[in-house]
Amino acid sequence: MELVAALRSGKYRQTKGKLHGGSNTYCCLGVACAVSGVGKYEKLSRSDRAYVYTGPSDELFHEDMELPIPVRDHFGFSDCLGRRKDEKNLIFGTKEHESLANANDAGIKFTEIADYIEKNWRYL
């Protein structure tokens, strides 16, 4: 899967609390946006960028904290934060997190998130 490969690639630097920050930093869901090809990043402020995509009626939307619906649909995620379909917490070692976004913001490394996605894809 392209998202797993991108998270493992070392090309993206990790940030917290937003899809894409300054200096080429992303959260794990921001990496999903970057590799999906369904929209693009545009400058939102001096350091942050929003993910801009076209809605069903050609209306432009932007998102800077959650996975946009077209990206969610592209990858088949069940929601915009990367929660499990069965409503269980995601487990990384001994730590539990509500979602991929929560795990990212708690400091779980991209490689660990990639491993989780690869092993638990059917639940996301």
Gist of the model:
This protein is α+β, with helices and mostly antiparallel strands.
Topology:
Blueprint: H1 2-8, E1 13-14, E2 20-21, E3 25-26, H2 28-36, E4 40-43, E5 49-54, E6 60-63, H3 69-75, E7 90-92, E8 95-97, H4 100-105, H5 110-120
Parallel strand pairs: 1-3
Antiparallel strand pairs: 2-3, 4-5, 5-6, 7-8
Please tell me about this protein's structure.
- The chain has helices spanning 2-8, 28-36, 69-75, 100-105, 110-120; strands at residues 13-14, 20-21, 25-26, 40-43, 49-54, 60-63, 90-92, 95-97.
- The protein is an alpha+beta fold.
- It has one domain (2-123).
- It has a three-stranded mixed beta sheet with strand order 1-3-2. Strands 4-5-6 form a three-stranded antiparallel beta sheet, covered by helices on one side. It has a two-stranded antiparallel sheet with strand order 7-8.
- Helix 1 (2-8) crosses helix 2 and helix 1 runs antiparallel to helix 5.
- The longest helix has 11 residues, at 110-120.
- The two termini are 14 Å apart.
